[in-house]
């Protein structure tokens, strides 16, 4: 499988490395068609789906679930190519993906800087409440309860849970666009967007998307790093 350029291969490799950071046994579902590859993953504990796309050098048809670690090892960044690993038995989430079409933009999403500030406030609140727990109350169950309460809150006037924004930040989707271009050629940061299709919400950024089902996915159950 040939990518459009080496940057596409490198960016996909970075995405896979972040998934593996949270789950060394992570699997990803690959779907390719029309000269583009979509990679779906479920970062452990965030209770969301992460989607990273890559441009291909030529049309390629593919639909398979593979090991994220094996795919990462199979990427040749210098050559801008990858060998698709053998298929694995997909986890349950791999059979319930967001729809390909029917998306419409939802108003009310704050800008990327405002989302990063909201995350900073949420993490600070978690740490403060965690520090206030007595030694006997500082259990995994109690810390998970606090985490679920905080990360299940919605962002601003939208119905997007904060855990989706947290996942986007942790996977590198909210980094400034200008950080990826030479200093001599600055560009304006592209706006992120909130999209909706049926029961799904999708936080789209220039580097990837986070999708969550409004009624079907539970809260975050790990403490923030």
Automatic annotation (TrEMBL):
Span of domain DUF8010: 2-95
Pfam families documented for this protein: DUF8010 (PF26035), DUF8185 (PF26572)
Domain of life: Bacteria
Domain DUF8185: 98-216
Entries under InterPro entries matching the protein: DUF8010, DUF8185
Protein's UniProt name: Uncharacterized protein
């Amino acid at each position: 499988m040939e990518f459009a350029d080496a940057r596409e291969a490198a960016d996909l490799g970075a995405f896979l490395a972040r998934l593996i950071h949270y789950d060394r046994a992570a699997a990803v579902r690959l779907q390719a068609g029309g000269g583009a590859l979509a990679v779906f993953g479920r970062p452990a504990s965030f209770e969301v789906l992460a989607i990273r796309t890559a441009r291909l050098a030529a049309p390629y048809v593919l639909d398979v679930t593979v090991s994220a670690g094996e795919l990462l090892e199979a990427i040749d960044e210098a050559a801008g190519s990858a060998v698709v690993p053998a298929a694995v038995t997909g986890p349950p989430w791999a059979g319930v993906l967001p729809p390909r079409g029917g998306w419409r933009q939802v108003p009310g999403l704050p800008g990327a800087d405002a989302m990063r500030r909201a995350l900073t406030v949420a993490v600070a609140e978690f740490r403060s409440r965690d520090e206030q727990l007595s030694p006997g109350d500082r259990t995994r169950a109690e810390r998970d309860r606090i985490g679920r309460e905080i990360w299940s809150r919605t962002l601003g006037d939208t119905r997007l849970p904060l855990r989706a924004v947290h996942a986007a930040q942790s996977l590198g989707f909210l980094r400034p666009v200008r950080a990826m271009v030479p200093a001599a050629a600055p560009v304006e940061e592209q706006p992120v967007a909130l999209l909706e299709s049926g029961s799904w919400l999708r936080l789209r950024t220039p580097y990837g998307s986070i999708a969550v089902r409004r009624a079907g996915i539970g809260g975050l159950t790990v403490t923030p790093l």
